[in-house]
Amino acid sequence: MPTEVNVPLDKEDNVVRAIFSPLMPNMQGMISKNAFALRHHEDYISVNRTSVASWQQDIDAIPQNNNRVLCGYGQMNVGRIQAQGFTMDGESVEFQVYARHSSEDKSHAGISSYLSGQKLIGDKNTIYKHIPNNVSADRLSLLIRIKLAKLANEHFVKFEQPQ
């Protein structure tokens, strides 16, 4: 397990994406592609490493309110995340997972996406900035989010919600 920040995780490691309702589950109760949208200026999707003993407490510490309730998590293997890479419009898309922990969130990590070696950064409306003109930002964003959501749905742990 990496003790340094910004160090790639091993392919054998597993991470979880905390899922909050009402925006992250879809109408069928599965993890929505929206759970993997980069927000403005973000360059990674936050996840937590299951190899760190405090990962569940770290997820529980994420702020919640009436419009943001933790409803489960999707577990993914780092090697399988990396294997989701693809080619689009002649450009390669790759995924990497890095340690991003802090003293407050010891299990924090991040999934970064790269287009031909350049890290993708979220821009307004989940469209990436700084991409070549030959690449459709909307289509790229959609494909990345669908691939990660599909993978996370393979091991989606749903919490019982109070009525």
Q: Any overview of this molecule?
A:
- This protein is an alpha+beta fold.
- The protein has helices at residues 55-60, 78-82, 137-153, and strands at residues 14-21, 45-49, 69-77, 86-88, 91-99, 108-115, 118-119, 121-122, 128-129, 156-158.
- A hairpin with a 5-residue loop joins strand 8 (121-122) and strand 9 (128-129).
Mean pLDDT figure: 87
Structural class: alpha+beta
- Portion in strands: 25-35%
Element pattern in H and E: EEHEHEEEEEEHE
List low-confidence stretches: none
The residue fraction in helices comes out at: 10-25%
Distance between the termini: 39 Å
Largest sheet: 8 strands, antiparallel
How many individual β-strands?
10
Note the main attributes of this structure.
163 residues, alpha+beta, 3 helices, 10 strands
Compact overview of the structure:
This protein is an alpha+beta fold. The chain has helices at 55-60, 78-82, 137-153, and strands at 14-21, 45-49, 69-77, 86-88, 91-99, 108-115, 118-119, 121-122, 128-129, 156-158. The protein contains 3 helices and 10 strands; from the N terminus they run ββαβαββββββαβ.
Question: Which helices and strands occur, and which strands form pairs?
Answer:
Elements: E1 14-21, E2 45-49, H1 55-60, E3 69-77, H2 78-82, E4 86-88, E5 91-99, E6 108-115, E7 118-119, E8 121-122, E9 128-129, H3 137-153, E10 156-158
